[in-house]
Amino acid sequence: MTDYAAFDQLATLIAVVRPDGQVRFANAAFEDQLRLSRRAAQQRTLFEWFADDRRLRETLAAVQGNRFATARFEAQLRRAPHEELLDVLVLVSQTDDPQHLVVEMIEATQQARHEREERNLDQVRSSKDLIRNLAHEIKNPLGGLRGAAQLLALELGQDSELLEYTQVIVHEADRLQVLVDRLLAPHRQAQVVGDVNIHEVCERVRALVLIEFPKLTIRRDYDISLPEFRGDREQLIQALLNVVQNAAQALQPQLVAGQPAQIVLRTRAARQVTLGKQRWRLALELHVEDNGPGVPSEIRDRLFFPLVTGREGGTGLGLHLAQTIVQAHQGIIDCDSEPGRTDFRILLPLP
Predict the structure, then answer these.
(1) Start and end of every Histidine kinase domain (predicted)?
(2) Order of strands across the sheet that contains 101-107
């Protein structure tokens, strides 16, 4: 079955079967997910792993009989004993050999994650130009507004009761200037590319956050075999710092109440990852996981939009800037959150 060896490079579960369900080939993802060897899979029928095999039997017969070239349906796979059933989207396709059919099984969680990643990328891209143009439009009159307030203050003199109002105008103009500068920062800074060790980045961020939150527990769970990659070290430190600070601020009420508050920095290698419609053989997976209250459901889908925040007094720029920096490195950030557990996952391609 060397003709199907390329399926080993895919992250989805692939089985090449006869119309009677006999497995002729199973790819590496199939072996890993169902906890068995390829040789063992070839001694069984694919029906044995389906919780309800009637739909699979009907579909194999329909595709093999040329009623459909491709068919799809949802199903559940059995795994090792005592493991939960695996929800999958099943695609059955013809091959050049009428006695062989390809059955692709895509994990429902994986499918949902890919759709969410694509949606996040499209949303951030569409808002990026709008935010940049809007920031420039705000900045242009801002300097004139501040200058006019200062000239008015000079005309009024130090003893005028109205001087306080001009000071308010200057102060608010300066605050808006800082906000605009933060919006424009990722678009102004050119990348300083060099070799980056992700664990050096993590350690730097860990030290900075513990200075601000000394009672916080930040646990390390590193895969030290991960290779270095090319990137802008300082920008990546800033991106990760924004994410970890966001988690630490969410844990602040627990710290004040003396309750357990923990962040875990976890690094892993991910294989056969799609980022921005491009397939990467290897990627770096960095998780920032906390045991806080979770992201409010009303902002979960807009979490990486600028000026969106669930925290009183927050600017809503930290996660947006982090996403912008990571996207400039061809990566992405996503978030999985529920009460008691929030997991920000940063994916970066590796050479």
Answers:
(1) 133-351
(2) 23-26, 13-17, 101-107, 86-94, 70-77
Superfamily designation of domain 2-111: PAS domain (3.30.450.20)
Between the CA of residue 311 and those of 129, 213, 250, what are the distances in Å? 26, 17, 8
What is the H or E stretch that residue 176 is in?
helix 163-188
Burial 262-273 (b: 16+ CB within 10 A, else e): ebbbbbeebebb
Condensed to tens digits (0 to 9), the pLDDT of residues 146-193 reads 888 888 888 877 767 778 888 888 888 887 777 777 666 655 555 678
Tokens, residue 190: 């050119």
Rounded to whole angstroms, the Cα distance separating 60 from 63 reads 5
As a whole number of angstroms, the distance between CA 217 and CA 231 comes to: 28
Local confidence band at 198 (pLDDT 50, 70, 90 cut-offs): very high
Q: Pairing state of beta strands 229-232 and 101-107?
A: unpaired
How many C-beta atoms surround the C-beta of residue 70 within 10 A?
A: 12
Q: What is the pLDDT of residue 111?
A: 55
In whole angstroms, how far apart are CA 27 and each of 10, 41, 236, 333? 8, 10, 35, 29
Distances (CA, A) of 107 to 12, 191, 236, 281, 282: 7, 36, 31, 19, 19
Q: How many CB atoms lie within 10 A of CB 55?
A: 15
CATH no. of 193-349: 3.30.565.10
Long-range pairs for 128-135: beta carbons < 8 A, 24 or more residues apart: 128/324, 131/183, 131/306, 132/183, 132/184, 132/187, 135/180, 135/183, 135/184
Distance CA 243, CA 234 (A): 14
CA dihedral 336, 337, 342, 347 (to 10 degrees): 10
Residue 283, strand partner residues: 270, 349
Angle value at C-alpha 24, between 41 and 55, nearest 5 degrees: 80
Q: What is the pLDDT of residues 95-119, one digit of tens each?
A: 888 889 999 988 876 555 566 666 6
CA-to-CA distance for 101 and 70, rounded, in angstroms? 10
